[in-house]
Amino acid sequence: MQGACPPPEIGALPTHGRLAAVCGVRDERLRCGRRWAAVRWAAVRLLPCLWRGKYFSSGNEPAENNPVTPMLRHLMYKIKSTGPITVAEYMKEVLTNPAKGYYVNRDMLGEKGDFITSPEISQIFGELLGIWFISEWIATGKNAAFQLVELGPGRGTLLGDILRVFSQLASVLKNCDISIHLVEVSQKLSEIQALTLTEEKVLLERNAGSPVYMKGVTKSGIPISWYRDLQDVPKEYSFYLAHEFFDVLPVHKFQKTPHGWREVLIDIDPQVSDKLRFVLAPCATPAEAFIQCDETRDHVEVCPDAGVIIQELSQRISLTGGAALIADYGHDGTKTDTFRGFCGHRLHDVLIAPGTADLTADVDFSYLRRMSQGKVASLGPVKQQTFLRNMGIDVRLKVLLDKSDEPSLRQQLLQGYDMLMNPTKMGERFNFFALIPHQRLHGRNHQTNACQSKPSPSPVAGFGELGWR
Ligand code: SAH
């Protein structure tokens, strides 16, 4: 039932533009040298990318572009029976509803999908992240065992590149007992991950009703398990990885009004059949408690699910050690309306044909830092360009270029590098952020050195120079 006094409609909320890049997919094609054997190469062709920075209006699409999807029908039914829903509820239903959710039954990544991510563009990205984990493992005393836990692993491409580095550096990791744990809600993507990572050489164990819904062994013989929820991953010494994961978690949106903060809700448009629109809640809603008292912006997005995950990661890292590496596009508590949709590498009106397009909002790193509640130290956000340069991307590119004589491959390597590093492409838009135990920085004045005006370099690779080679 909708409220007796209909909430005011928000005219055309501006929403920013996921990196909508029209890019090729990776395939196995480059083998170079013994040290980096079986290197996979990415991006068959890299075409110019469409930018996300553009403002984008919601709710102005002509009716003929608004097909009644099963998800739209489901949402209209829900709104008719219980009233307008929050943007967070909308995002959650549209993206991860177990039956009809956008992420649940499709492969949306790559050229034929809706968006492209860094690991799908260049193998170097995953390789450098693999080095990061090994570097942290060494710096923290070479624990006898570690779990590598990835949240939202997509096609498994990033993990595949990381595991290749682990294999190449087997002599460094020898005697370390490694296991892989994937947190994934998508049935379809978990099948693709299994194929990418295990080649199903050993039969996978499946049990849909169990918190560990799939189990197997990777191509290089490492045990691998799939979960729907981080809570179910064993609480052991772990390295956590989340790349373009936090941006798909549901956000609540709030608008400052003369009457105070009002939450943005989604309602049925009374003027046009089968259409949704944004409205403002007529009075305060419980989620308002998430807004900071000293907030100066007039529009904010808050992601409580991200807060819960950061609290869990912080708790785990403070108890067992390890680290979390989070990479995403986002800001440090400065942006306002960043909610947007992507379909076929183009911006897409978030309220049109729900279930057929990706929905995303920039990650607020200041909120993630706050949610760690001082249990761990946080580093960043630093720009992707800075992080990858600190990790030695230039050296790695040179090695690959020197080893490849095919002009088209050299071209692809250079284009992939440009896409990851160029400040006008992904170089400045994407950020790296880490959670590490306080002891990791112990004895080092990481913030500022009393004798220097400049901050002293971070001892953690990526946030400072990579010390270990
Ligand atoms: N990390 C990958 C894929 C990013 S897309 C890459 O960079 O290429 C987001 C991923 O998160 C997908 O694998 C999606 O299925 C997964 N996902 C989305 N919501 C999730 C949730 N609530 N819990 C676990 N996984 C989720």
TrEMBL record:
Keyword Methyltransferase included in the entry's annotation: yes
Entry keyword set: Methyltransferase, Mitochondrion, Transferase, Transit peptide
Record region (Disordered): 446-469
GO cellular component, one term: mitochondrion
Domain of life of the source: Eukaryota
InterPro entries, sorted: NDUFAF7 (IPR003788), NDUFAF7_sf (IPR038375), SAM-dependent_MTases_sf (IPR029063)
Composition skew (Polar residues), residue ranges: 446-455
Catalytic reactions on record: L-arginyl-[protein] + 2 S-adenosyl-L-methionine = N(omega),N(omega)'-dimethyl-L-arginyl-[protein] + 2 S-adenosyl-L-homocysteine + 2 H(+)
Entry function: Arginine methyltransferase involved in the assembly or stability of mitochondrial NADH:ubiquinone oxidoreductase complex (complex I). Acts by mediating symmetric dimethylation of 'Arg-118' of NDUFS2 after it assembles into the complex I, stabilizing the early intermediate complex.
UniProt name for this protein: Protein arginine methyltransferase NDUFAF7
Organism: Eschrichtius robustus
Lineage: Eukaryota, Metazoa, Chordata, Craniata, Vertebrata
